[in-house]
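Q: Given only this backbone (296 positions), what sequence would you predict?
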C-alpha cells in the first residue's frame, strides 16, 4: 500500500483483505504438492493407493524414513551429492569471482571479445554439451587406464571430477561478478598497486570480501542447481556407489512396482538440506539479490 493512499478506511481494509486472501490461495496452490508428498511419505503402501485419497494416515509411518537407507544405498548417494555440490560451489565462487575481477579491473588485449564469448554461452543449454564432455572425460590422458593419448581406458568417467568440472564456472556467475566488481571503486586498486600489492592479493584481500553479497547469491544458486542435477551424473557414472540423490531415486522403482511411500520419504530427505540452507542464508540471499540488482 502506498503511504499516500487517501482512500476511505473501509476501502483500504477491503483491498488489504482481498490481497491477503489472494496470497493465501496462491500459497495453498504452491504448498499443496509438498503437503501431499509429506502425507504419502508417512503412509503405508495400501494408503498410497486408497481412493478417495487419505489426507491423514491411520498410522504415521515414521519408519519409512529409516527404510529409505535400508532398501537402497541412499546414504552414499547423499554423501556423493554433498561432496560434489560443496566442492563445485567453492570452485565457482573462487573462479567466477576471479574472472569478474579480471574483466572489471584489469586491462588486457581481447578482454571485451572474451567477455562477449562467455556471455554467448548463456544461449547454449548446458545439456547440449554433455556428449562433448563425455568424450573429453573418457579421453582424459593418463587416467582410468588411458595412455598419454587418452586411449585404452575410461578416463575420469565414474569419478567425482567428471561431475564437478562441468560446474566449476558459469557464464552467469562471471557476468554477475563482473557487473558487481565494476561498481566497486577503482581507487582501491590504484592505491594497492602503489603500495606494491600484486593483483591476486588485491583481489583476495580487498575485492573478494567486498563482493560477498554477490558471491552469496552465486553460491546458493549453484549449490541448489548441482544438488538437483540429474542428467550429467546419469551420463558420467556407471556404478551404484557413484550415484547422486537424483539418480538414486530411481532405485525405489522397477518394471513392475514403485515404492511410492519410500520414494516420497527419500524426496523429503533430499530437499531438507536445501530448505535448511535457505532458512539459514535467507538474509544473505535477499541482501545479495538486492545489492546485485541495484548495482546491475
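A: Predicted residues:
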Amino acid at each position: 500500500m502506498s503511504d499516500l493512499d487517501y482512500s476511505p478506511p473501509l476501502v483500504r481494509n477491503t483491498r488489504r483483505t482481498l490481497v491477503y486472501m489472494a496470497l493465501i490461495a496462491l500459497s495453498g496452490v504452491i504448498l499443496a504438492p509438498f503437503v501431499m508428498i509429506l502425507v504419502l511419505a508417512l503412509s503405508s503402501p495400501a494408503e498410497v493407493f486408497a481412493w478417495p485419497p487419505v489426507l491423514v494416515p491411520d498410522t504415521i509411518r515414521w519408519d519409512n524414513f529409516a527404510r529409505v537407507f535400508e532398501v537402497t544405498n541412499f546414504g552414499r548417494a547423499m554423501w556423493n551429492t554433498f561432496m560434489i555440490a560443496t566442492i563445485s560451489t567453492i570452485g565457482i565462487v573462487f573462479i567466477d569471482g576471479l574472472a569478474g575481477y579480471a574483466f572489471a579491473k584489469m586491462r588486457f588485449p581481447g578482454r571485451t571479445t572474451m567477455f562477449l564469448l562467455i556471455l554467448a554461452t548463456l544461449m547454449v543449454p548446458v545439456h547440449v554439451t554433455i556428449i562433448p564432455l563425455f568424450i573429453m572425460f573418457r579421453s582424459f590422458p593418463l587416467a582410468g587406464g588411458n595412455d598419454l593419448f587418452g586411449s585404452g581406458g575410461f578416463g575420469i568417467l565414474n569419478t567425482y571430477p567428471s561431475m564437478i568440472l562441468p560446474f566449476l564456472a558459469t557464464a552467469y556467475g562471471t557476468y554477475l561478478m563482473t557487473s558487481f566488481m565494476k561498481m566497486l571503486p577503482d581507487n582501491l586498486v590504484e592505491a594497492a598497486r602503489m603500495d606494491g600489492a600484486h593483483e591476486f592479493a588485491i583481489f583476495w584481500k580487498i575485492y573478494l570480501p567486498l563482493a560477498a553479497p554477490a558471491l552469496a547469491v552465486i553460491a546458493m544458486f549453484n549449490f541448489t542447481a548441482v544438488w538437483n542435477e540429474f542428467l550429467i551424473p546419469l551420463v558420467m557414472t556407471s556404478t551404484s556407489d557413484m550415484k547422486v540423490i537424483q539418480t538414486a531415486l530411481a532405485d525405489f522403482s522397477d518394471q513392475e512396482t514403485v515404492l511410492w511411500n519410500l520414494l516420497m520419504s527419500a524426496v523429503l530427505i533430499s530437499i531438507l538440506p536445501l530448505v535448511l540452507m535457505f532458512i539459514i542464508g535467507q538474509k544473505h540471499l535477499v541482501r545479495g539479490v538486492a545489492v546485485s540488482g541495484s548495482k546491475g
